[in-house]
Amino acid sequence: MAQEISSQPECWRQAARLAADPSCPLPARGLRVAVVGCGTSWFMAQAYAALRDAAGLGETDAFTASEAPVSGRGYDVLVAISRSGTTTEVLRLLAGVRGRIRTVALIGDTASPMAQAADAVVALPFADERSVVQTRFATTTLTLLRAHAGGDVSAAVRDAEEALRAPVEDEWVRAEQFAFLGSGWTYGLANEAALKMREASQSWTESYPAMEYRHGPVAIAAPGRITWMLGDAPEGLAGEVARTGARFVAHDRDPLADLVLVQRVALERARARGLDPDGPRNLTRSVILAEG
């Protein structure tokens, strides 16, 4: 996990070059798009959908693959994200829409069943991982999608390099609880940050849209706990959290790069607890369900 976290800036550079290739099969402007994945890939789908919508490129919806209501909704393209290319729910969905909706798969393992199940493939083998816990594949995929949607990712790469050098504070390693917040495309990042903490270090973590945090979840804020904002914080929120005694964390760096720092915190929390972040309990690299 440590090596995979540290390799992200170079992976992002490669992803940006792929996005600039005219032959890249990702959806063109004006198409109606559904984006699906499971777990981490679903959260990257959420971020991409918000980015593409905000850029005015076309209506874009994100779904977890097992709950994707794509039939009869008039989607032009289904984009499926899967590191392993073996996730059962994604493969079932691709099979169900074959011949009716054009499909594009973003995968790490090009020898996987998903490479044959989709109409077009964007291969990211350089971002594939050995660790069960995803880090670089997720962020590299989102960098590709972000760049293809017209975003300039050069600042994100520089900020990721800085995030790899930034200190991991002891307070973060010892904290009792984390709440991650985001807005727009960074809400997907907040969901992913919370998942990383749960997977790697068995931490108590939650995630919310930033404006929604005041509507109940702020009740959990207290001394020894962290509220971490990914992106720009709503006016007044930092002060409200500070009055609870909780620590409010927000950085002036690209939110995706700040996710890299969260990954490092999750790794250090796992080490502090004597856990194996690459082989967390109850988890495997891919969820493959028995047929029937």
From TrEMBL:
GO terms for biological process: carbohydrate derivative metabolic process. One of its GO terms (molecular function) is isomerase activity. Coiled coil: none annotated. SUPFAM superfamilies: SIS domain. InterPro entries: GlmS/AgaS_SIS, GlmS/FrlB_SIS, SIS_dom, SIS_dom_sf. PROSITE patterns: SIS. Residues 23-161 form the SIS domain. Keywords: Isomerase, Repeat. Transmembrane segments: none annotated. This is Sugar isomerase.
